[in-house]
Amino acid sequence: MVVEPRPSDSVHNRLIPTQRLARPHPLRVRTVRPRNGTVVVHVAGDIDAASAPPLWSLLEHQLRSSPALVVLDLAEVAFADTAALETLILARRQAEGQGVALRLVAPAPSVTRLLDLGGRDAPFTCHPDIDTALNEADLDDSADLDDTARAPVS
Fold first, then answer.
1. Per the domain annotation, does 17 fall within a domain?
2. Is the separation of the CB atoms in 38 and 71 below 8 Å?
């Protein structure tokens, strides 16, 4: 008689929570104002249920300062869960309500996956680097000026 191992007996069929085994990366945030009306927020570490509320507070404060553009540099985000997605969506909604352009820079793979999951609820303008995000803002501003210059005067 041959006894076949049950799937539950196989080590290969067990789920190992690798996220829990990894050491958490503390959230680090640095803000820079490279020019008038522009805020760049560099975010690094883990964005989860514990760190998302303080991140939201900082973003909300920056948005209330009435900049024309907020750039979120997410290249160094090690981990992001649904709390991160919710924070980004809240920031986008507040920015839209205030007429502030919000751009994401180099979202880390963990953030990109969340944005993909968010679908229509998470439409963000993403750029490969900060310079590109800032230069696009310059192009947007010059397009607005061109439209104003061409507008008929009554």
1. no
2. yes
